[in-house]
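Blinded run. Sample ID left blank on purpose so nobody reads anything into the name before looking at the predicted structure. Input follows.
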Amino acid sequence: MKTPEAMNSDAPADVRDGEGTPVSVKIRERLVAARKRFFANDNIAEFIQPGELDALLDEVTVKMQGVLSSMVIDTERDHNTENTARRVAKMYLKEVFKGRYVSAPTITEFPNAEHLNELMIVGPITVRSACSHHLCPVIGNIWIGVLPNEHTNVIGLSKYARLAEWIMGRPQIQEEAVVQLADLIMEKTQPDGLAIVMEASHYCMGWRGVKDMDSKMINSVMRGAFLKDPNLRREFLSLIPRKG
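Blinded prediction complete.
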């Protein structure tokens, strides 16, 4: 297994910009120049140029190898961790935190030709994320209630899952994640009302800390008619087939 120094020297030129500038610094400079936020749960795809995500993968691999070395793990002789740095870097950038680095999924929208205006519920949609505090998994379900109007854009049921996956694929706080998803669906569909409920297990509680595997967090966001009409809100909540 190569040392971090050797891995850095072998990195392609676009990682170091030929002048020792890491690709992460170049991306960060574009964000700062545009006065754009780059919090853990922000999407920054607009500021990543072609080829830079692979270069960032190389950079994160080197940094992750440094973390393992600082934890006094002999990755050169331990066959179990020989390629762990690369695997973890790939997992973060191209899998679990992919929602930070790629653009929103393409969503085909259709006019509400039949002027549907009845409550529609989608779920449970299984979602996977990680808490921003410890980067521990957050895994649970989301239910989405939509009250369309004649001007509402209709999207396929699977597209709600794709939007949820994109939002959740970042280090998140559950309360903020649900708000982000509600904002996105409102923008895409323009319904009279939107309701979202999320129930999830947080491994920062089950794996560490109090080590309580049974606790779950449930929160909701109500928009439009769901916020104003308590009967509609009760109907939505009563139709969610939650366990126990």
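Unblinding after everyone has recorded impressions. The radius of gyration is 21 Å.
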